[in-house]
C-alpha cells in the first residue's frame, strides 16, 4: 500500500494511504479526543468532538472520518479547534442529565472526562431537556435517554457486531431518541440481552440492572445457605475495576473477597464447565453414531445466542446441544447433588453466580431450568456489580491474600477455564472427545487454530479415521453467516461453538468497561484477557475436563455416566420458538 | 410475516410493489412511500412486512418512518389540510389561518376527525412562498389566502 506524508501540528509523519487523520495524529504524538468514534465499530462523525483544522479547508473536519492526503497540514490543538470542542461539549451538557454525583459511570464517563479536560461550564446553555424515561421493562439492563449523547455506538454494536438491530435512532431533531420499533421496551422486542450496547456506551445512559441488593438480602437471611460460583472470565476482568492492568488474573483475591462477603461456599463454575464438556462431548459422539442426527451440532452455553436462535432461526433449534450452560448446571448440581450432601432442603439454598454477562440474568428465568423444583440459579451478578459490592463492603481488594475455592467441589480444570475465550469450549471439548474416541492424548493440547479473534475459525480433527470438521464463531454477525449456510444446506461442519460476544465471554456485556480512548489506541481487551486465561492453562496440571476428580466423583456418586437419564433430567434443557416483533 | 392488513386488493398491490423493488438499490424508502399511498398510513404490520421483505430490522423502518414527516403511523382522513407555517407564510398571517382551521374542523394539528374526512397538519415550508400564505388539501394548492377563505375551501370537500 502507498504511503502518504503529511504534517500534524508541524510534525511530519508518514502513514499508509487510507489512514484516519485521528490515527496519523496519534502516530505523530498527539491525542485527539473522540466520543462517537469507536475503532472497528462506529465511524459516523456525528459528535464533532474530534474536529481538527485542515490548512486550506473552510471548516473544521472530523478527524475520525477524514483520511490522510499527501501534503495535508493538520492542526489538532489550535485555539479555534479547542474552542469548537468546548462549545460542542457545553451544548451536549445543556441537554444532559447531570446526575454525576451518583451516576454509575461517574469516574468512567467519557463525557465527564472530556468536560473536565476542556474546563467546560456545565450550565452555560440552559434550555429544553430530554426527560428521564427509564427503559427498564426487561430483566437485564436500564437505559436512561436523559444521559444519552446520541453517539450511536450502541446502535452500531447491536446492528453491526450482533446483527440484532433492535435499537436505533427514532424521531428527529431535538426529539431524536435511541429506542426500539414502535417505542417498545427491550423486553418486548427480539433483544438477545447481550449487553454489548452497555460496553460501548460512553456515558451512564446504559447500564446493567443492579441486583446487588438481592444478594445482600440473601446474605442477611439466616435461613438460606448462600452459595456463589464464578464464571471463568470474571477473574480475568474483575481486577480492572480495582486498577489492575487489563489481562490480570485475580482469581485468588476474587475468591478471598467472596469469602469476606459472607458466602457459605465459594465454588468455581469451571467445574461445571467441565461437566458441560462431559455432557456435550457425549452428546456429540452420540450424534456422530446416529444417522438421523442433525449436523452441525451447535453449543448452547451462551444465553444471548440461544435467544438469537429462538428468535431468528427457530427452524434450526434441533441443531442446538441440549446441555444447560455451565451456570445452570452449577445451580442444578448445587440444588440436587450438593443439597443432598449438605442435607439442606433445596428451597433453602440460594445460588448466586458471578458472570461476565447480562444475558445470564435472563437465562435464570427460562423455563425448564429448575432441576430441584426451584430455580437452578437465584441471582446473577455481572463482574461490574461484583466489584461494586466488594467496594461497598469496604474490602481492600489489593491487600487480600490469594485464597482457594472451597473443597470438595470447588475445583475446575483449566479446560473449563478456557470457556471464557472464543474457541475455548471447542478446545476443551476436543481435548476430551479425542481422548475418549482414540484412547490417546491429542498430539498437542493446544488447539491453536481455533484460538484468537478471527471471526470464523475452523479445524479438522481425525478421530480414528473419521474426519470431524469443527468451527468456532463469536459475535452474532458471524453466527448469522454460519446459520444462513446451515439453513441453505451449505454447511459441512460437524460441531460449531458459538459465543454471542466478540472475543467470547472475556468481552461479555457484564465485564468492566474499557474506555474508547484505550480501544481507539489499539488496546484490545479481548486479546489481553484471553491471554491471561491461556497463560493459566499452560502452567496448569489439570488441563482436561474428564480428568477432573470432582467430575469423576459426580458421575460415580450421582449421575452414573454422561447423558444418563438422571443427567438428562438435571443437566439438559429445551428451547422454543420466540416470535419476533 | 405476511398477515393481511388491508383489503385483499391492497395486500396484492403491496406485494407487487415489494416484488418490483426487490432488486432496486435503496428500496426501503420507496417501499414505504408506496405502502403509505396504498394503505394511507404505516401500521406495524406494514412496516414488519417491509422489514422482512428486505431483510432489515423493523427498527430501521420505524426510524425512517418517524424521521420523515411524509410518513404517518396513524390513518389519515380522506382530505389532509396542510397549513404552511414556513417563515414567509407565517409573517403573512398563516398563524391566523391555522387558528381558523382548528376552529372550523375542531382539530389540533396532527389530528384526524372521527368521521375520517379531514386531517389537519401544520407543515414546514412547501416551497411556494410567492403564494404566501399557502395551504394544501391533498394535492390541491390554495395561495394568497385570507382567513375568511377557510370555510369556502372546506365547503368544496363536503360532497
Structural class call of chain B reads alpha+beta
- Integer average pLDDT of chain B: 93
| Spatial order of strands in the largest sheet of chain B | 2-1-3-4
Based on Cα principal axes, name the global outline of chain B. elongated
E-strand count of chain B: 4
Whole-number tally of structural domains of chain A? 3
What's the helix count of chain A? 19
Q: What is the CATH topology classification name of the largest domain in chain A? A: Rossmann fold
Percent of residues in helices of chain B comes to 40-55%
Whole-Å distance between the termini of chain A? 46 Å
Please mark out the parts of chain A with pLDDT under 50 across 5 or more consecutive residues, or reply none: none
CATH C-level category of the largest domain in chain B: Alpha Beta
Trace the largest sheet of chain A across and list its strands.
2-1-5-3-4
Provide a count of the helices of chain B. 6
Amino acid at each position: 500500500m502507498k504511503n502518504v506524508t503529511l504534517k500534524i501540528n508541524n510534525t511530519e509523519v508518514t502513514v499508509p494511504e487510507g489512514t484516519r487523520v485521528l490515527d496519523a495524529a496519534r502516530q505523530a504524538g498527539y491525542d485527539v479526543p473522540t466520543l462517537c468514534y469507536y475503532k472497528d465499530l462506529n465511524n459516523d462523525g456525528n459528535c464533532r468532538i474530534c474536529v481538527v483544522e485542515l490548512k486550506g479547508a473552510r471548516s473544521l473536519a472530523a478527524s475520525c472520518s477524514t483520511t490522510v492526503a499527501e501534503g495535508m497540514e493538520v492542526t489538532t490543538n489550535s485555539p479555534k479547534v479547542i474552542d469548537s470542542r468546548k462549545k460542542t461539549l457545553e451544548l451536549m451538557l445543556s441537554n444532559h442529565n447531570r446526575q454525576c454525583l451518583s451516576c454509575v459511570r461517574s469516574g468512567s464517563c467519557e463525557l465527564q472526562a472530556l468536560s473536565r479536560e476542556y474546563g467546560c461550564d456545565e450550565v452555560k446553555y440552559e434550555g429544553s431537556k430530554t426527560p428521564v424515561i427509564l427503559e427498564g421493562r426487561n430483566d437485564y439492563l436500564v437505559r436512561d435517554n436523559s444521559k444519552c449523547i446520541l453517539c450511536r455506538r450502541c446502535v452500531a454494536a447491536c446492528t453491526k457486531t450482533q446483527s440484532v438491530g433492535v435499537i436505533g435512532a427514532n424521531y428527529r431533531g431535538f426529539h431524536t431518541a435511541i429506542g426500539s420499533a414502535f417505542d417498545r421496551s427491550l423486553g418486548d422486542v427480539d433483544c438477545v440481552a447481550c449487553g454489548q450496547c452497555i460496553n460501548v456506551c460512553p456515558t451512564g445512559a446504559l447500564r446493567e440492572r443492579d441486583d446487588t441488593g438481592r444478594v445482600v438480602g440473601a446474605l442477611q437471611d439466616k435461613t438460606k445457605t448462600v452459595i456463589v460460583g464464578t464464571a471463568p472470565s470474571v477473574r480475568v476482568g474483575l481486577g480492572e475495576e480495582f486498577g489492575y492492568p487489563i489481562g490480570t488474573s485475580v482469581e485468588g483475591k476474587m475468591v478471598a473477597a467472596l469469602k469476606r462477603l459472607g458466602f457459605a461456599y465459594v465454588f468455581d463454575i469451571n467445574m461445571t464447565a467441565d461437566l458441560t464438556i462431559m455432557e456435550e462431548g457425549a452428546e456429540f459422539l452420540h450424534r456422530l453414531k446416529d444417522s438421523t442426527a442433525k449436523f452441525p451440532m451447535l453449543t448452547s452455553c451462551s444465553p444471548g445466542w440461544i435467544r438469537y436462535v429462538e428468535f431468528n432461526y427457530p427452524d434450526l433449534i434441533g441443531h442446538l446441544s441440549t446441555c444447560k450452560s455451565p451456570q445452570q448446571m452449577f445451580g442444578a448440581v448445587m440444588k440436587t447433588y450438593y443439597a443432598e450432601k449438605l442435607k439442606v432442603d433445596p428451597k433453602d439454598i440460594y445460588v448466586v453466580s458471578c458472570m461476565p454477562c447480562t444475558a445470564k440474568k435472563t437465562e435464570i428465568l427460562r423455563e425448564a431450568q429448575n432441576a430441584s423444583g426451584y430455580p437452578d440459579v437465584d441471582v446473577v451478578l455481572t463482574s461490574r456489580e461484583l466489584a461494586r459490592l466488594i467496594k461497598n463492603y469496604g474490602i481492600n481488594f489489593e491487600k487480600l491474600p490469594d485464597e482457594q475455592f472451597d473443597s470438595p467441589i470447588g475445583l475446575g480444570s483449566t479446560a473449563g477455564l478456557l470457556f471464557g475465550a472464543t474457541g475455548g469450549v471447542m478446545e476443551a471439548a476436543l481435548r476430551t472427545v479425542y481422548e475418549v474416541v482414540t484412547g490417546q492424548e491429542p498430539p498437542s493440547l493446544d488447539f491453536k487454530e481455533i484460538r484468537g479473534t478471527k471471526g470464523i475459525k475452523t479445524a479438522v480433527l481425525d478421530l480414528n479415521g473419521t474426519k470431524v470438521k469443527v468451527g468456532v464463531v463469536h459475535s452474532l454477525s458471524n453466527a448469522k453467516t454460519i446459520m444462513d449456510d446451515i439453513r441453505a444446506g451449505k454447511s459441512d461442519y460437524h460441531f460449531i461453538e458459538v459465543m454471542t460476544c466478540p472475543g467470547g465471554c472475556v468481552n461479555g456485556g457484564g465485564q468492566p468497561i474499557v474506555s474508547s480512548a484505550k480501544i481507539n489506541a489499539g488496546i484490545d481487551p479481548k486479546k489481553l484477557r484471553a491471554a491471561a486465561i491461556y497463560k493459566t492453562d499452560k502452567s496448569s496440571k489439570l488441563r482436561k475436563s474428564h480428568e477432573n476428580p470432582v467430575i469423576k466423583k459426580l458421575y460415580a456418586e450421582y449421575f452414573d455416566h454422561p447423558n444418563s437419564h438422571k443427567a438428562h433430567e438435571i443437566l439438559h434443557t429445551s428451547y422454543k420458538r420466540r416470535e419476533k416483533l | 410475516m405476511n398477515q393481511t392488513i388491508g383489503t385483499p386488493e391492497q395486500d396484492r398491490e403491496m406485494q407487487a410493489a415489494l416484488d418490483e423493488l426487490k432488486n432496486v438499490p435503496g428500496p426501503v424508502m420507496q417501499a414505504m412511500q408506496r405502502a403509505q399511498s396504498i394503505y394511507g398510513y404505516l401500521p406495524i404490520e406494514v412496516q414488519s412486512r417491509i422489514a422482512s421483505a428486505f431483510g432489515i430490522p423493523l427498527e430501521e423502518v420505524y426510524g425512517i418512518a418517524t424521521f420523515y414527516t411524509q410518513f404517518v403511523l396513524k390513518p389519515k382522513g380522506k382530505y389532509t389540510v396542510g397549513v404552511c407555517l414556513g417563515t414567509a407564510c407565517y409573517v403573512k398571517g398563516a398563524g391566523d389561518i391555522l387558528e381558523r382551521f382548528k376552529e372550523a374542523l375542531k382539530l389540533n394539528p396532527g389530528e384526524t376527525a372521527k368521521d375520517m374526512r379531514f386531517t389537519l397538519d401544520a407543515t414546514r415550508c412547501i416551497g411556494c412562498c410567492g403564494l404566501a400564505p399557502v395551504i394544501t388539501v391533498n394535492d390541491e394548492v390554495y395561495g394568497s389566502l385570507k382567513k375568511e377563505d377557510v370555510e369556502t375551501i372546506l365547503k368544496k370537500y363536503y360532497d
